[in-house]
Write a structure and sequence with these properties.
2 domains; Rossmann fold; 11 strands; Alpha-Beta Plaits; 38% helix; 6-stranded parallel beta sheet; 9 helices
Length: 221
């Protein structure tokens, strides 16, 4: 059975989600007040509605509570974003994912019941910053306000060394939770395993600890 997901707001963020979901063979409902935007993405969704997501009667009439996830991707209208999220939860939607414009907006969304709050602009800025500072950071993923996961390309200083000899946890307070070796994921690697050239280390720790690790590794290059 296909997943059914609704996307409210077809700006750049919402539109990109709709296109990605279409590629994943998901039934997508889109809602936007702008008819031109709804028409622009007509090749990517199963159903499009030109309407206001703060209209509780409209949302109820389309059975919005039957969707597996509703994504509120409204752009600059913070009031509409908050009100839409509140109405969706009141209507019994199982999972509501809402885009936040800033940290204050995010805190309000969490308090009114949003299941997932995303900060696309902030998160993208952090990804870019990490890649600029460290050429070895392949990917960066925030898991909380203070902890993250990074994919780190093993440099020459790490190659052919056993995990236990590196003492990464003792020195930096971070953990190697997996190794991507030629697209084969080694989960919870044995401390006696040696790191090879081309390995991608998947590390978890506080942002402060990870930043310290990246800076030290850059200096050792």
């Amino acid at each position: 059975m296909k997943k059914e997901i609704a996307v409210i707001g077809l700006g750049r963020f919402g539109g990109s989600i709709v296109m990605e979901l279409s590629e994943m063979d998901v039934d997508v409902l889109v809602i936007d007040t702008d008819e031109a935007r709804v028409n622009e993405y007509q090749d990517y969704y199963s159903e499009g509605i030109i309407g206001d997501s703060t209209d509780e009667a409209m949302l109820k009439s389309i059975g919005i509570d039957n969707y597996d996830n509703v994504i509120v991707a409204i752009g600059d209208n913070i009031q509409a974003s908050i009100l839409s999220t509140l109405i969706l939860k009141d209507l019994g939607v199982k999972k509501v994912t809402t885009k936040a414009q800033n940290s204050y907006h995010g805190r309000v969304l969490e308090k009114i019941g949003a299941d997932i709050v995303v900060h696309p602009e902030r998160d993208m800025g952090r990804r870019i910053a990490h890649r600029l500072v460290s050429s070895s950071v392949v990917e960066y993923l925030e898991v909380s306000t203070s902890h993250s996961i990074i994919e780190y390309s093993a440099n020459a200083k790490l190659e052919n060394k056993r995990i236990s000899d590196l003492n990464i946890r003792e020195k930096f307070g971070i953990s190697i939770i997996a190794i991507n070796r030629d697209n084969d994921i080694i989960v919870s690697p044995d401390p006696q395993i040696s790191i090879l050239g081309g390995d991608i280390l998947i590390l978890i720790g506080s942002d402060q600890q990870l930043n310290h690790f990246e800076k030290v590794m850059e200096r050792l290059k």
